[in-house]
User: Which sequence fits this backbone?
């Protein structure tokens, strides 16, 4: 008996059912924090949520349409494995029910209800991280999600959002992460000075991305390549464990926030753009650190 | 007499006026192409549109609230200069009128109606460009705008969108460019094989960003640094004039599209992310080329 048949016994078809309203309500921050749950929508997030659940339980419920199950066999395979787990509520739903649960303009056939995943800053610092991305009062959910996805790709050990930042469990932020929320630890509501003290104690240097910074990212990267080649080089060593600070999209980092960093680092702007999108700046900075850290043990800039 | 007073003589306060509907209609692609006009919203876009207009006329009309004029003195200064130009229609409008004209959820007090800016591919190729970003069937307006802004920051000579891509004049795309649309030439509706033939004839190499690519961007960058240091290095020279191809966000580049490139280049993914957002990939690739091209004449990897 295949998965669709096993689930077909009790499909949900009433978009006005209390359970549907409960799920839809998780689009709001207060319901999320009260209930300790959030929504992960779409096949990519569902796949990553289910894969993580099989390692460390995090999924509360899964609602999926028959069409989506047929279209995403990888999700169906994971669901088969999860179904044995009685603590996860899995239901086939009609498209109307899915649309009523989803926050997306174009629902993608599957909604996973997950338990909040964020961890305390102390837990991240105890692992002696090599690369941390800190979002300082970033407001736009799409930006936060994009930075989280870029941090995952760059191999960052965790992402931290300071107090006053957008909620990373905002449905739009979750969609923008494309599943990366399930890949690396996230800290929310961090106090920036306390976090930086803890990171320094854990051996990290602190860099602030700042368009008007005193250090130039290209020079830091060249110095890192030189060092890896055994040549002398001055300045901050990008191969060090590093915390990167990225500021609010409109105002950037405040003067006191910048002052907390060892260096304020400018990403070069070669054209006429006045500034970089926070996602773009974070991508360039995190990839620069990742490159330096991964090159450090090797030798020769030409490798 | 200050600008607000000069404009106050004839404020627009009726959100149902025909002119208001005409402006709002430019949120739609067919009205834009029929009338040859598009909307640039918000102070950042307004500033860049007006600055460009003073060099090469492109602004048809400006609608601004008194609050926005007071809050953005840089826009007011540019408007003063543009007011002498009788071909630009400038009006103070009420907040209701501005909201009715704007496509944005949170209108930012100023809407500029501009003439379409895109140029033929031949015009771009005739300048023998060193760095071109080509969006191949990219669908999301926010992604297209973000890549355009990143291409501007990386100093690209132009951005090309192939046939089947989102319209770069989509209001959301324009907002995401943060003014970069007024900084560098944009080509729309390009035929990819024809564009690549033309680019090769103009001396460019062609690289396709491809998660499963045969070339690794880190290695290309290291080879470039080695070459600049006078060391031998094999493979594609990133310092060459280069066209980068970036694919559709869901499907990437098709096999025939990839086959058009000299190399398929993978951006390293160090963490567990399965893929990169197109904006993230474009940022890393374009910055890598910019770095190599700008380093080429210098010597020494440690500089």
Assistant:
């Amino acid at each position: 008996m295949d998965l669709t048949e096993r689930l077909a016994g009790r499909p949900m078809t009433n978009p006005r059912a209390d359970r549907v309203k409960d799920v839809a309500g998780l689009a709001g921050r207060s319901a999320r924090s009260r209930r300790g749950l959030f929504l992960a929508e779409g096949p990519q997030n569902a796949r990553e949520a289910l894969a993580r659940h099989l390692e460390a339980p995090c999924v509360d419920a899964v609602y999926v349409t028959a069409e989506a199950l047929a279209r995403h066999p990888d999700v169906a395979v994971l669901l088969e494995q999860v179904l044995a787990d009685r603590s996860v509520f899995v239901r086939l739903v009609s498209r109307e029910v899915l649309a009523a649960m989803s926050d997306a303009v174009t629902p993608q056939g599957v909604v996973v209800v997950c338990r909040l995943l964020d961890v305390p800053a102390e837990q991240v610092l105890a692992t002696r991280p090599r690369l941390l991305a800190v979002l300082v009062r970033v407001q736009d959910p799409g930006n936060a999600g994009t930075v989280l996805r870029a941090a995952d790709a760059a191999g960052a050990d965790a992402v931290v959002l300071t107090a006053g930042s957008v909620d990373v469990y905002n449905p739009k932020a979750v969609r923008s992460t494309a599943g990366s929320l399930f890949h690396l630890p996230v800290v929310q509501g961090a106090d920036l000075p306390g976090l930086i003290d803890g990171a320094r104690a854990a051996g990290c240097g602190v860099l602030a991305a700042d368009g008007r910074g005193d250090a130039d990212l290209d020079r830091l990267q060249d110095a890192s390549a030189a060092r890896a080649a055994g040549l002398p080089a001055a300045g901050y060593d990008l191969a060090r464990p590093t915390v990167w600070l990225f500021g609010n999209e409109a105002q950037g980092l405040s003067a006191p926030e910048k002052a907390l960093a060892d260096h304020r680092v400018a990403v070069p702007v070669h054209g006429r753009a006045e500034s970089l999108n926070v996602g773009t700046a974070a991508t360039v900075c995190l990839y620069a650190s990742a490159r330096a850290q991964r090159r450090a043990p090797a030798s020769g800039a030409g490798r």
Remarks:
- The mean pLDDT of chain A is 92.
- Residues 267 and 284 of chain A are 7 Å apart (CA to CA).
